[in-house]
Structures are given as structure tokens and as C-alpha cells.
Sequence to fold (530 residues):
Amino acid sequence: MAKETAAQRVERIKKEKSGLDVLEDIYEYAIFDNELDPEDIDRFKWYGLYAQNKTSQAKDDEIQYFMLRVKLVQGSMNIDQMRVLAGISKEFARGTASFTTRQDLQFHFIQVKNLPEIFHRLQSVGLSTVFAAGDVPRNISTCPVAGIDKDEIYDTRALVLEVNDYFKGNKSLANLPRKFKVGISGCSKHCMGHEIQDLSFTAVKCKDGQILFDVSVGGGLASNKQFAHHIGYVMPEQILEVVRAVSVIYRDYGLRKSRKKARLGHLIKEWSLQKFKDKLENSLGFKLGDEVAQEYTPYSKREHFGIHLSKKATESYIGCAINGGFIGAKGLEDLASVLYKHGANTIKATNTQNFVVLDVPSFATQDLADDLALLGIDATPSPFKARTLSCTGIKYCKFAMSETKDTAISLVKHLEKSFPDFNETVSISVNGCPNSCAHPNIVDIGLVGAKFKDENGETISGFEVVLGGNLEGTQSKFGEKMKNSKIKPDEVNQTIENIIKAYIKSSQKHIGHFLRDMIYGGEFSSYKLK
Fold:
């Protein structure tokens, strides 16, 4: 009998038992300490759990640890939730806690025996891990300042909640071909990043004053590396109908023969965009509007840092940056205390691994910002700290080839010291493998984990350099991997410094243009550490 392919194995596992049905097994494993069935471990993803790389644990430690992702609906987290999450981090996750690019929070070193208590604590403050991972609809990406930003095009909070309620534990969507990422935003800065979502809705104000939503489909990174296609417009009240129709089409017709070709974008490519649109409109029973696609904000300017007056009288919000997405148990505890001290209660995570404090009494904004700065949380971050992303990396991820979090933190500190007066935002990504969790292909400077031979012929872990990525609607560009760009971990800081220095000395007015010139030039070796 022929050996199962990876796709056949996953499809069989899902068919034999839904990922949603593994919760009872998780409790049994926790109580009776039974050996974990590898196929149940795959199903654990439906509850936000991924088996953790064993490289970061002692050789005599045979425990299978997990990463646990907590779903933050609309990226939201209040003080009570912060304190519960801080307790989970301290007691069960060795102090780890990091924001993700999908506005979630995730822990490491989680043991199955502690999951019943962890799930109980999360439930007590209205949090969940259901559908935080697996072949399901993932957390909906949205603007963190929806409803409070004076410049927003449309307040999408009710729309997001409506779609989230449809997705929440939906058994009919518990077996999609692969993950399904939806974004909904009314942000005037287009911070949601519609170009890389499977399905997205972006508000636009028409000439007659009407608000419509641009519908885009098929975006993605890694194996589905393509920008989303604009297919038309819908009214706000039609968004849920489109989400339902696309979800069912993807579930019923998605390509399941290969895990690498199972995303929605692959189905669209197989069918053609027109066939997909025709199928969608037939399912909906109405046509999408055909207005011309709007212009979009460049990626580096899609941010909400600093102190801003809210739509709510007497309140302001503060956009903050942390380094590499890591906050930890102490960071969560300290953040909760500082917010409480100054009369604020809620933050919302962003898709750049940062967050916004939503509800600050306007008279307390500067004092709060000053106290946050003492915690290493900046309302006026350096241009490097503002937009540096990093994935989980080799410490915890079984796919990673290189360390990322510490590398990102070290790089930011190095660049801040080397260029204290630099004032142009530079988007940077430190990614541990080619899977693009930290979006290295859409930033100015991307580092992608790789293995290669050093000058002594020994295989080592390091990075390849990708330059010139950008999100900007139809003007979006993926970064290009540079020739001769393999660098060792200890060469990262100096290499990126050399690139910034060369840009400063150039005649270009924007680093993106300079990096495109480097791409067209084709050579990179002169920027490497000698």
C-alpha cells in the first residue's frame, strides 16, 4: 500500500474525528497522564496548541511542551484579562507571552496536564483558544482603533463581532482545506493589510458620500505568495453574506490534495478569478459593485503610534511599540498596573505585534506614556522599533532554522544606537524559516532563516536577505531575495547598518526606492560584514 501523503494524512485525521471533538481527549490526557496520540496532537491545533520544538529544553527533559495561542477578538484585552494571562504565563509558561501578527497572544512551554486549569482561567475572563489554529477561520484582522479614531472611514466593530459570532466554534467550518484568514477594516490608514488576507473588506467613501467595502480575495504569503484580487464592492450589511458564501465555497471546493496548494488563493488560480467571482455571485444572488479600486496607504505609514484624541469626549488613545512582540508575564502585570493607575482599562493588539491603549483619560495621557516608557513600551518609538516583526523562531518552532526574537531585539537596539537621528520608518522582519509568519516578503528589509555552509564547509544556521517589499494596493510588491546574501547571526546587525548607511549617503529620498535600486543592481555582497 502506498504511503500516505501529508495531505492525505491530515484529511483522514480530520474526517475520523473533528478537531473540535478533541477537547474531551485533552482533559483525559491531562488527568490520566496517558501517552499522547500523534494524531490527537494534530487535532490539538483546533484549541490553539502547537507541538513545541524540543531544542530549547534540557536533554533529559522528555516532556512534550506546546505553544498555546489565545484568541483576542478584535485584538482586545482588558485589565482583568491581562492579569489572568500574566498568571498563566508565570505559572505555566515560564514567563513567556508574545503578540502575534494576527492580534493574538501566545505562550510557550505549556504542558497538557495544566490545560484544564488554563482553559478554566481563560473562560473566567471571556477568552478562548478555539479556532486560534488549525484548518479553520482564524482570528479576524481589524483596525485596533475602530470606533475611536476620528479619521476612520467606518466603525467596523459591530461587523467584526457579527462575523466572529458566525465563525465561533462553527462545526460546519471545522474542516476547511487549510487556514482561512479574514480581515475587516474601516481604517483610513488601511492598517489591516487587505493584500495578504484570504478574504477582506476595506471601507471606502464614494463621491456621493456612501460607504462601501472593497472585497478582495486570495491573498497570502509563503506557499500562497500572491496579493489579493479586488473583485468588487458591497454594502456593510452584505459583508456577513459574502463571508458565509466564500467560506462554504472554500470548504466545498478547496484543493485538498496538497497542503501546499490548499489555500483559497490556490483555488482561485485553479479556477480563474472570473469563475470564482461568478460562483460567488451565484451563491449570493446578487452582483458585487464594480467601482474602481481605491488607492491605499503605503505599508510603512500604516500605524497608530502616539497620543491621539478619541471620538469619545475626555478620552484619548495611545499607540505603543514593544520590541519583537514579546511582553512576558512581568510585562502584562506591569501594563495592567500602569493602566489601572491612570484610569485606563483596555488595549488592542495590532498586526505589527504592538498595541494601542484605547481609553485613556485625556488629562492622564502624558503621565501614562511616561510610565509606559519606563517599562520599555514607547508611544513615540524609534523608526526601527516601530515596525520590526519577528516570528517564534528556533527556540520554540519546529520549522524554524534560526533564532528570531533575541535577534530582532538586538538589531533594533543596534540601529537605534547607530542612527539616533534617523526619522524615516523602516519596516523589518526577522523570520526563522521560509514560511513567512513574520511577513519578510512585504517589508523593506526581511531576514529569512536558512541553513548554508560557512567558509569551513560546515552547515550553519543564519539568514538570507529579502529587500524591497511593500503593501500598497495595486502597487504592492514582494521583496526580492538578494544574491550572495547569506549572513551569519552575528553579521545581522552590521549588515543592516551598512544598508542604512548606504541609503543615507545615496541621492534617494525614500528607503523603498533605494532598496529597489539595490534589487535591480542584483549584487548584495558589498553590504555584508567583512
Remarks:
- The two ends are 54 Å apart (CA to CA).
- The longest strand covers residues 445-453.
- The chain has a mean pLDDT of 94.
- Residues 388-527 form a domain with the Sulfite Reductase Hemoprotein; domain 1 fold (CATH 3.30.413.10).
